[in-house]
Design a protein that fits this description.
By secondary structure, the protein is mostly helical. Helices cover 68% and strands 4% of the residues. It is built from 41 helices and six strands. The structure holds zinc ion (2 copies). Pfam families: DYW_deaminase, E_motif, PPR, PPR_2.
Length: 757
């Protein structure tokens, strides 16, 4: 600049050649505004002046100005030489407008610059970016004196566009002619090797890298990391990682993300800490990967520290990072914190919505998840297979059939209805909503089934007490060559025990270990205990529990207690109840069952002892909750609830049902109530059990003759079960109740469970 002012003082005696040199100096020194002023003040300009300033604009990413200058150059009739074209093609690639390279190609061809190595290479790059590999090859073949850069351009073009074999061919031709590859050539070749899984070839090339002393280059290093992690050789990858320079964030990011994605979350986290100690600043991708690892570990403390760091480096608004943070809080059970981040985030994308929806489903808040899903649709965001399967899971848990069906039709409209993950969720949704036939329909027309599909269908049939159907599916599964797993057998054995298929159940239990090598787990054992127990083999069931090689769970003793009640075995029942109460002293259901059993055996002193003990323990009941879906809305009823706006009608209907059932000879089973009150009051208390409130509501809100579907969070009690059977006959409607164990399908006075539940 000092020089320039000196020149100006002396009366601007520079010619065009010298001014161009000065212009170039300003550009190189990144003094772009000075360069612009000089350019504007030049009395005459030639092509070199234009190209110099175009390069200046490109350097400082002012692409539009660069293109504008090119138009001016062309308009003012200056010479279009090879430098003009290489510069402008570079601009187009940088601004992701490589498609426009076409327009220039015609011009280049006309002027005969096509065979020039510089122009040719720039054209190859442009065509490579837009995926026109054939055109790139044509240009390559036409270049007269190819240099190393031209060859490398072609190798990279093939590698980037997944023409891996061609990339290796060009590479070996290049070496035959005697050109020495550079770091970009090697990076392209490694990419091709990974694509072809040609790991032996890659090993040879790694040798060349060492000979050419490129092993410390960052491009080559990252390509090698990719190569060794893809070939499963994490040890070699680590060795390469230790050798390459680690000032740049890219290799760190790469390794952290690989560890996070391959279930080595702890390693990923510790590498992140090491990177921090090396004073390398993480970028959004590093944070996203490290946070993913943190979410998998469920480590909230580390998550919070990361959150602080994110704020410090100013990446809190980055969508990748904020999505990953939401996931961390959701997976650590702090869904409110996740929601706060979600609400604050200004650039949410579909991943953000999905993360929140999955988070809510995961923590059991199906209503929130579904609400968010509707909001997502209103905002015209695209649902993915993960969204669909999550909201279907939410509908299943609420047994919200209308909603589930709407989601199904939406999946059809958006072409997700043929996706295996979505179809599996549909099977589960339909069977949990009581529509086992629709579940089967989805299963039958599926494109591609996996183990999950078969398991879902088997456990669907099992839940509905359709054991024979479940076993047919199990047979089909094996005929088609699918391998049953632990969950498959949980389905098969529960199908046998829910339907009383005694012999088959025992055979499958033996064959599971003998033929399939699957160790029985607690779920398998509890199916077997229930199967033996309900068939009257109570002592065999008790013996099975004793033989279990690990600590038996409450579940097993509950199954046995249930069986003892059916078969009136007070002694074994008392023992089972004792075991349950040792593990869960305040379990209300067990107290009720036990008292019921004593009452049936007319051992009143035991009944009152239980009542005393409950009082002493100050037990609080888990509130019975039932719900029905009506016009896409879910209505909840808790026991004794009087808050529903339709309460008057509901009470009227209950009154009427009470009268009709009595007239049909129904005697309420007052033992199902443990409170020390008059029998009259006990009867009243039974009539406000949540499923009856839900039933009364559904009776007047749904079209007469249609099926009534009720979901209950606990096991249905003896008295409600008996009442439901009778009511289904009196009002001539199908009533389906899903309790915590299974479906009860009441029809014309009979229940599908055959009174075993
Ligand atoms: Zn009840
Ligand atoms: Zn039943």
């Amino acid at each position: 600049m000092g020089l320039h002012s000196e020149i100006l003082k002396r009366g601007n005696c520079l010619d065009l050649f010298a001014t161009n040199i000065l212009l170039n100096m300003y550009v190189k020194a990144q003094l772009l505004s000075e360069a612009e002023i000089l350019f504007d003040e030049m009395p005459e300009r030639n092509t070199i002046s234009f190209v110099t300033l175009i390069q200046g604009y490109t350097q400082s990413l002012q692409f539009v100005e660069a293109v504008g200058l090119f138009t001016r150059l062309h308009g003012e009739g200056h010479e279009l030489n090879p430098f003009v074209f290489t510069s402008i093609l570079k601009v187009l690639v940088s601004m992701e407008w490589a498609e426009l390279g076409w327009n220039f190609h015609a011009c280049i061809y006309k002027l005969g610059h096509e065979s020039n190595a510089f122009v040719g290479t720039a054209l190859i790059d442009a065509y490579s970016v837009c995926g026109c590999v054939d055109f790139a090859r044509e240009v390559f073949d036409g270049v007269r004196c190819k240099d190393m850069v031209t060859w490398t351009g072609m190798v990279a073009c093939y590698a980037e566009n997944d023409f891996f074999e061609e990339a290796l061919q060009v590479f070996s031709q290049m070496r035959l002619i005697g050109f020495k590859p550079n770091n970009f050539t090697f990076a392209g070749v490694f990419k091709a090797c990974v694509g072809l899984e040609a790991f032996d070839v890659a090993k040879g090339v790694h040798g060349c890298v060492l000979k050419a002393r490129y092993e410390l280059d960052i491009y080559v290093g990252v390509a090698l990391l990719e190569l060794y992690t893809k070939s499963g050789n994490i040890g070699n990858a680590q060795r390469v990682f230790e050798e390459i320079p680690k000032k740049d964030v890219i290799p760190w990011s790469f390794m952290i993300s690989r560890f996070a994605q391959s279930n080595q979350s702890e390693v990923a986290v510790s590498l992140f800490c090491r990177m921090r100690r090396a004073f390398v600043v993480p970028n959004q991708f590093t944070f996203a990967s490290a946070l993913q690892a943190c979410a998998t570990l469920g480590d909230i403390e580390f998550g919070k520290q990361m959150h602080g760091l994110v704020l410090k480096v100013g990446l809190a608004l980055d969508v990748f990072v904020s999505n990953a943070l939401m996931d961390v809080y959701a997976k650590c059970g702090r869904i409110e914190d996740s929601m706060q981040l979600f609400e604050k985030s200004i650039n949410r994308n579909d991943v953000s919505w999905n993360t929140m929806i999955v988070g809510y489903v995961h923590c059991g808040d199906a209503v929130k998840a579904l609400g968010l899903f509707l909001e997502m649709l209103e905002n015209r965001l695209l649902a993915t297979e993960v969204t669909y399967s999550s909201v279907l899971c939410a509908s299943a848990s609420l047994a919200a059939l209308e909603l589930g069906t709407q989601i199904h039709s939406l999946a059809i409209k958006t072409n997700y209805a043929k996706n295996t993950i979505v179809d599996n969720a549909l099977i589960d949704m339909y069977s949990k909503c009581g529509r086992i036939r629709d579940a089967r329909l989805v299963f039958d027309i599926m494109n591609e089934r996996d183990e999950v599909s078969w398991n879902a269908m088997i456990s669907g049939y099992s839940m509905h007490g359709l054991g024979i159907e479940a076993l047919k599916i199990f047979q089909m599964m094996q005929d088609r060559g699918y391998k049953p797993n632990t969950l498959t057998f949980v389905g098969v054995l529960s199908a046998c025990s829910n339907s009383g298929l005694f012999d088959q159940g025992q055979d499958y239990f033996t064959s599971m270990f003998q033929d399939y090598g699957i160790e029985p787990c607690i779920e398998h054992y509890s199916c077997m205990v229930w199967l033996l127990g309900r068939s009257g083999h109570l002592y065999k069931a008790a013996k099975l529990i004793e033989e279990i090689p690990f600590e038996p769970s409450v579940m097993l003793w509950r199954a046995l207690l249930g069986a003892c009640i059916i078969h009136n075995n007070v002694e074994l029942g008392r023992l089972s109840a004792q075991r349950i109460l040792e593990m869960e002293p305040r379990d209300e259901a067990t107290h009720v069952l036990l008292s019921n059993m004593y009452a049936i055996a007319r051992r009143w002193e035991n009944v009152s002892a239980i009542r005393q003990s409950m009082k002493k323990k100050g037990m609080k009941k888990e509130p019975g909750l039932s719900w029905v879906e009506n016009h896409g809305r879910v209505h909840y009823f808790s026991v004794g609830d009087t808050s529903h706006p339709d309460m008057k009608v509901i009470n009227g209907i209950l009154e009427w049902l009470n009268m009709r059932t009595r007239r049909a000879g129904f005697v309420p089973n007052c033992h199902a109530v443990l409170l020390h009150v008059e029998d009259k009051e006990k009867e009243r208390l039974l009539w406000v059990h949540s499923e009856r409130l839900a039933l009364a509501f559904a009776m007047f809100r749904t079209p007469s003759g249609s099926q009534i579907r009720i979901i209950k969070n606990l096991r249905i009690c003896v008295d409600c079960h008996a009442a439901m059977k009778l009511i289904s006959k009196i009002v001539q409607r199908d009533i389906i109740i899903r309790d915590m164990n299974r479906f009860h399908h009441f029809q014309d006075g009979i229940c599908s469970c055959g009174d075993y539940w």
